[in-house]
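Recap for those who missed Tuesday's class. We walked through two folding examples back to back. For each one, the amino acid string is listed first and its predicted structure tokens come directly after. Nothing is annotated here on purpose, so try labeling regions yourself before you check the end of the notes.
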Amino acid sequence: MIYVMCPANIKTGGTELLHQLVYQLNKQNKEAAIVYTGETEGKSPMPEAFSEYVATYLLSKDIVDELDNILVVSEVACDKLAEFKRIKKYIWWLSVDNYVARDGFAGRMRIQGFKTALSLMMKGKSTHLRKFVKLADMHLCQSYYAIDFIQKMGIPEASIAYLSDYINDIYVLRENQLDRQLKKKYVLYNPAKGFAFTQKLIALAPELNWRQIQNMTTEQVMNLMQESMVYIDFGNHPGKDRFPREAAISGCCIITGRRGSAAFSEDVRIPKEYKFDEKEDQVEEKVIAKIRACLDDYATNDSKFESYREFVRAEKVAFASDISRIF
């Protein structure tokens, strides 16, 4: 039995991926179950959107701690491994930065800043995860950024396997409905990431048609992306993020920073001319110039992302193949 641990009642790209893993494992006749942790507050711990992947679920108390079984946890839940003795333990590294932010004062300060790190430490909420990482028998990595990170921690290559992910099927299935002639000169951004830098861009070019991706359903996000010409993504890239891939398959030109996974061509497979170092002098002007170029000559710039789109289309098949190899 393969148990995949997931926090209850949380819908994110990461928790969706945990459900996709269970779905693909069961599809390959490998017995697997999603296991919810945390408070369920008397209601179903499964977000309704994830019912397409799994029909049933277990709770932590249902895990059978035996040698023939496998427990998969994300990097931020690696402390859960200490609760079990016999079961095979796998960590799936979905977000390097989320791990760093939970691994002591220095890590949290690096990701969230000094004030937040100090406040949480004073409240007794500082955590140290590295000792739990050593309990894992196997490390699965969603990104090459994660592989690089754990290799630098001293994890041996024999204990590392690449297991990425794929975007929601709706994006690939609806790609044939995309009409590039109807594209509008919208510049999309996620206000939850790199917003301080994005604000500088907006201040520099307020006349551009900036659109936030926030508080939307999957279908609403897809529709907006199919209408738009450009998607920008600055700030942290804690793993191989979904928004750049979803935007690319929806016909957007992608412009990113070079932090986290964006620094790795294997993770964010766009031409170098569309990646910018946020610390560079006058970088805001260079980004705005690239945005304008994409808006003014959309067809030429859009064509440069076709190899990235081909990679995104193939990810679901690759994911199934990786699962077969690992499990």
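Example two. Treat it independently of the first, because the proteins are unrelated.
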Amino acid sequence: MIEYIIGVDGGGSGTRVRLARLDGQELAQGQSGPSGLGLGIERAWTSVAHAVTLAFRAAGLEQPSLQRMAIGLGLAGVHNKQWAASFVEHNPGYALVALESDALTTLLGAHAGQPGVIVAIGTGSVGEVLHADGSRHEVGGWGFPSGDEAGGAWIGMRAINHAQQVVDGRVPGSAFATAVIDACGGQRNAMQVWLAAASQTTYAQLARLVLEHAASNAVAHGILSDAGRQIALIARALDPAGTLPVALCGGLAAPLSSYLPAALLQLVVPAQGDSAAGGLRLISKHLQEQ
């Protein structure tokens, strides 16, 4: 018998879960490491398991067997159907698993299941719209490294590219460039080692330096201004008429808000819930349909 439902938001930087009773009463949250499917199926399930354990601990409850839980997950990488199928096949024992993209769960959480647009900006980026007729479609979400414009990894790659040009002497140095160079090893050989091992999560960690130096450095400011324009392009592609509310979600939504074009800012509304809350809505819907 299912007693608890769990909503999961998983990406390249971390995993967040919301724990609730079957009637929807939320009890606690938990956080753990990355669970984007591009980082590996086993790693994703391990991160989810750790976050669930921490949520039960925060609620002061003994964690029951997985057979007494149903879980709804919004994970980065679900667009790769082989990864998604493998993830579900490796279900460690949950009574029911509902897996969708993190874009859909973010959409369900942000507008409480009502029509609207979301642009989620974290390690990566993706946008999705839910229309009044129930139809939906997605923009972006192509993944690292070819897509994910405005996401942390994209910002980080722009930063390290600038640092490489500074090391080469192609462009002048700055405190911003020095901070990036130091974060990646401090000199050319060490930077090349860093680059060889870098993942989307690693690149995304450089976004913090771009944000810190944007007020005083034109290159850093330009990177974030470009990110704002990319967010606007995603939103416009989702709702060309500009009639639906737009919620900006994810860890970089707030820091990038000041770099958005004015036309987009007029449509922006606060998100009512996050992707993990959307995961709860997702699994609740699946249970009702059974």
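Answers for example two:
DSSP finds twelve helices and nine strands in the chain.
Residues 5 and 70 are 5 Å apart (CA to CA).
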